[in-house]
Amino acid sequence: MEMNRCKEIERSIIKRYRKSIWRPFIRGIQEYDMIQDGDKIAVCISGGKDSMLLAKLMQEVQRHGKMDFELKFLSMDPGYNEKNRQKLLSNAELLNVPLETFHTDIFDIVHEVDGNPCYLCARMRRGYLYKNAQDLGCNKIALGHHFDDVIETILMGMMYGGQIQTMMPKLHSTNFEGMELIRPMYLIKEDDIITWRDYNQLEFLQCACRFTESISESGDGVGESKRQEMKELIKKLRATSEVIDRNIFRSVHDVNLDTLIGYHRGNDSYNFLDDYEERGKKKTEN
Known about the structure:
Elements: H1 2-14, H2 18-31, E1 40-45, H3 49-64, E2 70-77, H4 82-94, E3 99-103, H5 106-111, H6 117-135, E4 140-142, H7 147-160, E5 170-172, E6 180-182, H8 190-199, H9 210-218, H10 226-240, H11 244-251, E7 262-265, E8 268-271, H12 276-285
Parallel strand pairs: 1-2, 1-4, 2-3, 4-6
Antiparallel strand pairs: 5-6, 7-8
Helix pairs in contact: 7-10
């Protein structure tokens, strides 16, 4: 019975959600050159809707695509309670995702941290995932970040970081030589992931850390993150215009350096005054 349901869920990705999920997934892989022959990719599974859909998408492209690569499905238990742990395992079984799990005490560590526990948790998770993926012989880890994560990052950088930056579709690890991170769901919108989840009547983990649980229990809203603020802002912008989210996304693909006051790359920085007079003379000569 469960195998039949898994087949129906897989079929929904290719058929019913072909336009909104499958095609953007394939386009993202191709446009940003994420997968090559010979890759061994650790698909990182947190148990949420994004990573579980990513697992199914990666299985489908391995099954139907032209590239020859290996997959491992790597799940880290950072200290889930028993209910969340069982929900993760039962969903993996239902969806026929063969998990390789390992345990850490990240939740215990970050629970005692003041300031920004979510940032520390994310960094520690990433390090553990890289290390365990490398131990499995993988050269890449795949994360379930999507289109909305990207445009939220752009807006957060501008509004709270005072800079223009984004979440890259792929990047080389600075601490684990030979390892690369890819984000195959880069072009898939979160609303479409939610629609797929609800259509298939699936129930996945939310953020299952103790910090989030304590916020939920207190009901005081203290834990509302800046990213959640960006989600609400983007929701309002989308109600105003159907192209605004796409334009935010495209803005970091087509940066006009001639109109920037300053920028930096690595340790090198540039200010428009550095060659202002020189560029003015060239315009006069032309």
